Amino acid sequence: MASEPGPRVPVHGPRPGAARDRRGRGPRGVFSLPGPLTPHGAPIHRTPREAFDELVAEILTRLDRHFAREPDHVEVAIEEAPLLPYGWDEPVPRSIVNPAPGGYRIVLYRLPIIGRARSAADVEDAVWTVLLTRLAEVWHHDPEDLDPRD
């Protein structure tokens, strides 16, 4: 008769042994195992699109009190890049405002925003600037009045 295996014990804590660094290309393998605070493991890598989406979500969360007060409904969307007509000779826009049912839709273009930035701090500052400028345009306020970073 085959014996039944014992209860499964979850693996917690650091991985035993040294992290592998084959041929000087950096460590390989699992960096975060499941644990009591992260039952599915922690995500190690985010794509640039996911990182940008999280940045915009964090900024919108900080601007949440304005969304509750203003009468015009505003929806924020993110697209990779605008579709420009043939022969476009002006700078590529970083965002646009479109009318939407019951309010407005602000579309942020990820690649033009990131392409004009030199660092992650520049990307964050550019997203703040674009969002505050567009929200001020829709709600007829000064962008400095909406900025919670003061």
Report on this model:
A hairpin with a 2-residue loop joins strand 2 (95-100) and strand 3 (103-109). A 3-stranded mixed β-sheet has the order 1-3-2. The protein starts with 47 loop residues before the first helix and ends with a helix. By secondary structure, it is an alpha+beta fold. The chain has helices at residues 48-62, 64-69, 110-115, 120-139, 143-146, and strands at residues 73-79, 95-100, 103-109. It has a domain at 48-146: Zincin-like (2-Layer Sandwich). It contains 5 helices and 3 strands.
List the helices and strands and how they pair.
Layout lengths: L47 H15 L1 H6 L3 E7 L15 E6 L2 E7 H6 L4 H20 L3 H4 L4
Parallel strand pairs: 1-3
Antiparallel strand pairs: 2-3
Pfam families: Zincin_1
InterPro entries: Zincin_1, Zincin_1_sf
Protein name: Metallopeptidase family protein
Name the features.
about 150 residues; alpha+beta; 3 strands
**What form results from the Cα inertia axes?**
globular
CATH class of the domain at 48-146: Alpha Beta
The residue fraction in helices comes out at 25-40%
Going by helix content, strand content and strand pairing, the class is alpha+beta
N- to C-terminal distance: 72 Å
* Mean pLDDT over the residues: 80
Total count of helical runs of at least 4 residues:
5
Strand order of the largest sheet: 1-3-2
Q: How much strand?
A: 5-15%
Overall radius of gyration: 23 Å
**Elements, N to C (H/E):** HHEEEHHH
* Poorly predicted spans: none
**What fold name goes in the CATH topology slot of the domain at 48-146?**
Zincin-like
Largest sheet: 3 strands, mixed
The total count of strands amounts to 3
CATH architecture classification of the domain at 48-146: 2-Layer Sandwich
Biased composition (Low complexity): 1-17
Pfam family, one: Zincin_1
Region (Disordered): 1-46
Protein name: Metallopeptidase family protein
